[in-house]
Amino acid sequence: xxxxxxxxxxxxxxxxxxxxxxxxxxxxxxxxxxxxxxxxxxxxxxxxxxxxxxxxxxxxxxxxxxxxxxxxxxxxxxxxxxxxxxxxxxxxxxxxxxxxxxxxxxxxxxxxxxxxxxxxxxxxxxxxxxxxxxxxxxxxxxxxxxxxxxxxxxxxxxxxxxxxxxxxxxxxxxxxxxxxxxxxxxxxxxxxxxxxxxxxxxxxxxxxxxxxxxxxxxxxxxxxxxxxxxxxxxxxxxxxxxxxxxxxxxxxxxxxxxxxxxxxxxxxxxxxxxxxxxxxxxxxxxxxxxxxxxxxx
Length: 297
Known about the structure:
Blueprint: H1 23-29, E1 36-41, H2 60-64, E2 70-73, H3 75-78, H4 83-92, E3 98-101, H5 105-110, H6 118-128, E4 138-141, H7 151-160, E5 167-170, H8 175-178, H9 180-192, E6 196-197, E7 199-201, E8 217-224, H10 229-246, E9 251-258, H11 264-279
Parallel strand pairs: 1-2, 1-9, 2-3, 4-5, 5-6, 7-8, 8-9
Helix pairs in contact: 10-11
């Protein structure tokens, strides 16, 4: 994942910004007794996650899904898979596993939420729902040049999205967050429609760290820099997530990327251990039962 990468990550101030003033208010409106945490990578193929799979692994997804409890499914951004493919993914994975698929680029980047996207959305959902109870939160990632001048398209999309299907949206144009009037309207729209506001933690785009939750789900896309700071950044996230847990958050969806993706499982394993130690989760630590476990640095 090259988005937000920098040449010298050691020069970046990775301090997590304070929470938006309305984040804890949002969590405290409807505090939940439920608490679920999903941590995963963006891909499962062996070419990207080199060294993660034991020698002789025949089915990568089957193995991956027994190490992690979720996957941020980026493959669905590039094409809409037929229902049969989602059925196969469903059958290969254990009961507690969830997929978090990205909406097709035809919706976000080509048609850019135009009024004629409804048939494409319906086609996508007709396939994705074959994941049944293993379908986590679908997410929409808008292009970085999709600006607030097209806010009306976001309104139409948010209000027409089927409410029974969880949705998160990632905006990359800086004006969505740095213009206070626009940001306020956006947050209200997302809250009203129970849509999660994706937080992107990337070295080169600290402006996207809005720290504004719009419902009881935190959807976080974390991009490591293949640098020793990756660990301390995750430590800071554990502290923040503990605060959100103490204030009634229902679900945390945390997906680890790296510019060199083969290190994503290694960093994820460290993060999961910290969650287990500090938040009381009981997540499996990937490859914890394997002698082939590597170290990141």
